[in-house]
Amino acid sequence: MADQNRRRFMRQGALGLAALPLGAGVLPRTALAQSLPRLDPSSSNARALNYVEKASDASDHPAYEPGQTCANCMFYTADTQGCQLFPQHSVASGGWCQSWTEAG
Ligand code: SF4
């Protein structure tokens, strides 16, 4: 009987340890998404690339084409709402900047 209890304990412990990496992988991403401050469109970095939070606001920019948004840009990371060109900030999924490049 004690042997069975020990086996059950070991099996449950092993399952718990196996689940750890899954939880550990999810938590930092969530924390990161919450910790990235939103890019201020009036900041010098944002203005350098004509970043706007609402893509249609860029309709007068020669490089803009309807349908282009951060969400379908290759530099965008949906999990964190991050942009590789603005690594310290998150960007609006519906935003746009002149470096927009179609996601492959
Ligand atoms: S590079 Fe792409 S994801 Fe980043 S701000 Fe510009 S359009 Fe948005």
TrEMBL record:
<keyword id="KW-0004">4Fe-4S</keyword>
<keyword id="KW-0411">Iron-sulfur</keyword>
<keyword id="KW-0249">Electron transport</keyword>
<dbReference type="InterPro" id="IPR006311">
    <property type="entry name" value="TAT_signal"/>
</dbReference>
<dbReference type="Pfam" id="PF01355">
    <property type="entry name" value="HIPIP"/>
</dbReference>
<dbReference type="InterPro" id="IPR019546">
    <property type="entry name" value="TAT_signal_bac_arc"/>
</dbReference>
<keyword id="KW-0813">Transport</keyword>
<protein>
    <submittedName>
        <fullName>High-potential iron-sulfur protein</fullName>
    </submittedName>
</protein>
<feature type="domain" description="High potential iron-sulfur proteins family profile">
    <location>
        <begin position="33"/>
        <end position="104"/>
    </location>
</feature>
<keyword id="KW-0479">Metal-binding</keyword>
<comment type="function">
    <text>Specific class of high-redox-potential 4Fe-4S ferredoxins. Functions in anaerobic electron transport in most purple and in some other photosynthetic bacteria and in at least one genus (Paracoccus) of halophilic, denitrifying bacteria.</text>
</comment>
<keyword id="KW-0732">Signal</keyword>
<keyword id="KW-0408">Iron</keyword>
<dbReference type="InterPro" id="IPR036369">
    <property type="entry name" value="HIPIP_sf"/>
</dbReference>
<dbReference type="InterPro" id="IPR000170">
    <property type="entry name" value="High_potential_FeS_prot"/>
</dbReference>
